[in-house]
Amino acid sequence: MCGATGDLWHHGEALVHQECVCFLPKPEAAEPSLAYQEVSAEPDGPGCRVTIIELPQAQRYSRVLAVLQTKCPALVPFERWRRCVEDGKHFLANWGEQAEALGWSSADLFGLHQPPERPHSSYNRLSRYDATGLCWLLQGRRVTALTAETAAIATGSLTTYRKHNKPALGPLGDSLEDLK
Q1: How many Cα atoms occupy the beta-carbon half-sphere of 35 within 13 Å?
Q2: Exposure string over 31-62, b if 16+ CB within 10 A, otherwise e
Q3: Chain segment 155-170, per-residue pLDDT in tens
Q4: pTM
Q5: How many structural domains does the chain have?
Q6: Which one of 7, 127, 135, 170 is CB 3.0 to 4.6 Å from 88, fit for a cystine?
Q7: Other C-beta atoms within 10 Å of 72: how many?
């Protein structure tokens, strides 16, 4: 609308410069409001305002996604956090209602490993596949099928994510207990 070419956001059908969005008329708030506002100090600088819109699908998960959008969890790489938020929005828009009907929990979608009290400097919460939710593992790939126990992910071929029975230590043979 203002003629700027960078940092354009969709506002309805129009593309609007991100700094001009605040000058557009605001729609009447629905009761209860579906928007949250949060002010963060990082990573975009002091006083960065973030507006989080809940998706109408899968209300069970939208609050978790709204909180996740406000701040990168500790011991998670920043880029993986941003990718998870985008993948989570896309997943909920396409599969949220079905996931809710099939009994997927917020932890199944967005869960992370609880870090140790004093983690090593190289520790990454995403390194524990057995405690990592589906949206953290998508990394831009799309879910193509969903059941009560699994999600099929398009990876060039097909990868199956299992909600339960994920090996904590990797494939068979990673543990001495497997050799008994």
Answers
A1: 9
A2: eeeeebeeebeeeeeeeeeeebebbebbebbb
A3: 888 888 888 766 555 5
A4: 0.61
A5: 1
A6: 135
A7: 19
7 is a domain residue: no
3-state secondary structure of 92: helix
Which structural domain, as residue segments, surrounds residue 133? 31-114+125-179
In a domain, residue 75? The reply is: yes
Residue 44, pLDDT score: 52
Residue 19: is its pLDDT beyond 70?
no
pLDDT in tens, 81-94: 999 999 999 999 99
* Helices and strands per DSSP (H, E), number in the chain: 4, 7
Paired sense of beta strands 35-40 and 48-53, if any:
antiparallel
Confidence of residue 59 (pLDDT cuts 50, 70, 90): confident
Assess if residue 163 is contained within a domain.
yes
What b-and-e string marks burial along 117-155, b requiring 16 or more CB atoms within 10 Å of the CB? eeeeeeeebbebeebbbbbbbbeeeebeebeeeebebee
Containing 160, the helix (H) or strand (E) segment is strand 158-162
